[in-house]
Amino acid sequence: MRFQTPLLSAVLIRRYKRFLADVRLPDGQEVTAHCPNPGSMLGMAMPGLKVWLEPNDDPKKKLKYGLRLVEVDGTLVGVDTGAANRILRAPLVAGEIPGLSGYDVIRPEQKYGTGSRIDFLMQAAGRRDAYVEVKSVTLSRRPGLAEFPDSVTARGTRHLGELARMVAQGHRAVLLFLVQRADCNRVTVAADLDPVYAAACARAVAGGVEIMCLACDLSADGIRPGLVLPFALSGVTG
Q1: Residue 108 and residue 119: Cα distance in Å, rounded?
Q2: Residue boundaries of the structural domains of the chain
Q3: pTM to 2 decimals?
């Protein structure tokens, strides 16, 4: 996925009301940017961090800048959780994602379960339908270890239950953690931040839900999927 317009560097002043960030441009001008991340952004919202903005000239948009990347200890981190599906869609269609190739039909944002939408429904003749739920991972509190979630996520817990039900109905269900940072080599669940989610994840895995993890290659030009990363329900090992 390439960014639509060249990114501009800035310095973060503050992030507030979840979706707003005040930043300082190189010329000293202070502007408010849209922050496309509903999570806590733990470790990524400290004043003074270098950030990267995508400008727009859309008259329908009140804010003329969107926050796209944050630089933490020299590592770029993708802020836009909604970008995860866009990052994956073309590689999935091209059959480039290990373990998810060989599907002829890929349908994004399909209704399923009880009032939910699956990120990708993948289908092929003679194969079980694959329900793929994508989660953007940005948290890292220990060297090399990516963690999800960064705050309590009742929605994420509900999605795990829906995936488990798909397996029970004879389908394939995959929870794909897309790690939008390049300094991690393994993935785990942040059980201390959301023990209910951690328990739901353990039940889902026991019920046959597959866990896949992918790193990302990030730059000011764009973001693309990288290497497959190992997953463990506990981050102690590895």
Answers
A1: 5
A2: 8-77, 83-232
A3: 0.94
